[in-house]
Specification:
mainly alpha; 0% strand; elongated
């Protein structure tokens, strides 16, 4: 028997960025090490570097890639 363990509102929020991020989360999930920065810099073009970095942060912070980053 299926069980709904998330409300509809919780399911909607799951696929989105939160409205605010704490300072601790910013430091933990959105700060890159020197090795990570080298990996980002290896991408070609500013758009690709930005997209790669945003995708990396989304994966670390949200645990998945959102449909609309």
């Amino acid at each position: 028997m299926p069980v709904k363990w998330l409300t509809e509102i919780e399911r909607d929020l799951l696929g989105k960025w939160p409205e605010s991020v704490t300072d601790g989360d910013m430091e933990t999930f959105f700060t890159f090490s020197e090795d990570e920065l080298r990996e980002i810099r290896d991408r070609r073009g500013d758009e690709n570097r930005l997209g790669f970095a945003v995708g990396w942060c989304a994966l670390r912070f949200l645990g998945f890639f959102p449909e609309d980053p």
